[in-house]
Amino acid sequence: MTKAPADFAARIDALFQDFTGPGSPGAVVAVTENGREIFANAYGLANINNAVPMGRKTIIRIGSQTKQFTVLLILMLEAEGKLSLSDEVQKHLSYVPRLEQPVTLAQLASNTSGFRDHLEAMIFAGLSIFTPSDRQTGRDVIARQDALNFKPGSAMTYCNAGFFMLSEIIEQIEGATFNDVLRKRITGPLGMDDTSLLIRDGAAMNRLAAHYTKREEGWANLNWGLDLGGEGGMISTLDDMIVWQQNMFDPKVGTPDMYERMATPCVFDNGATGFYGLGLVTDVYRGRRAVGHGGTVAGGKSESTRFVDDGFGVVIIANNDQVASFALGRRIADIYFGDKAPAPIALAPGRYRQEGGADVFEIVAKDGVATFLNAGGVGGFDFGHQGGAKPERAITDLVLSPRADGKLDGVFCGTPRLYAPLQAGAAAARPLAGRYVNKAQDLEVEITGDASKGEFRLRSGLGAMAAPIVAADADLWFLLQPGTDMRPGLPWNATLAVTSDGFEMNSDRIKKLAFKRA
């Protein structure tokens, strides 16, 4: 007999009610208990144009859930003596630059390498993620990296480039495509016949869902232009992902030791424990060990979470980018375990800057409750997390708590930080106008304007971009999304921190990208 409450199904259906109306994309959801399915449902449409409903066999992108498959393949190759997670990356990939310190395969798999995310690097080189590009473009962007975000092993920042490199290593060692290796070693033996790597959006396939984003005028198809690999290119179905999740509870493919290694959180140089293992997010939620991974792609969101000591699992796959899959997975767990939401922590609305650094975020009051916004987007808080309020995102190591003086104490990757409010309407000490270059990455920037606002124009061999900038502090600027202003609650793309000879760009996944005055 299930431990779920009598109204379990009705309460889950209520969580997805916004995706059940006519003309709406939707999601598929399943819940398992000790290997037995106790709930499953499909909401909305797989294809709006043809009114095709979502179903258990609908094929949908799962995005970064691909990373756990990539890491399992790496562990299989290690078990066969074909590589070691302690190998330096350059042992396998000659095009990867050796920067300030050596980087290992284990650090790629745990997001602790310090490499900059190559997808953000493309965007900040003027190549839109919607513009067609191939895998060689990704290699070229990685090869031009001129510095690390941080010392490897000292922190965690999500990095698609690490898993791009791991998937390249798999193909090189096996002499086969990622898809072929995946089929031979994982999906074939498990009978996951609808799970594979879909390299690019726009492909035609039977039962493949269309993927959607929400615009003012309504729903619209959304496709990326880049070729995807082991960092986020897989497609699957609800039925297949249930099989995969149950295999992690009771392995038929892979070994218990492999999955335990993947679920073991990283330990930073300072001795603190992080929230990411090897290709899996690992955390303690409401006192229970939760392990899984989510995915975000063009017009798609997904989440697979296992409460590993309780035999409880949740799978969510959506064909739109409006389903908050990570948070919804946790709400389903709250219903199942009967957990009440903890009291909100009082975090005063406003923008905050790290003292002695360039990290900036905004606290936004939504229905009277604080939410978190930075260059990576907006989301709620887990107010029950040990040590304070943790942004309710799968990939973050930041925990915040208020102080009596109006500042916020923070802990990032085990290191204390202090955040102070930024004053509205700030002016910079001087205009940032001028020409700047990063020669190693073939980037040129021209900035015009005064000490309050300006225009940022970048060009490179990959493309060009233009966006407004607004002063954030005496020595800090916001780089905004094109066509936006700086009203509260609107995200920014990056900050520009003024240096003695130029500025450093900092985004969600790129830190200290240096430009010198030309």
From TrEMBL:
This is CubicO group peptidase (Beta-lactamase class C family). It comes from the Bacteria. Residues 13-325 form the Beta-lactamase-related domain. It holds the Pfam family Beta-lactamase. Gene3D superfamilies: DD-peptidase/beta-lactamase superfamily. PANTHER family: BETA-LACTAMASE-RELATED DOMAIN-CONTAINING PROTEIN, D-ALANYL-D-ALANINE-CARBOXYPEPTIDASE/ENDOPEPTIDASE AMPH.
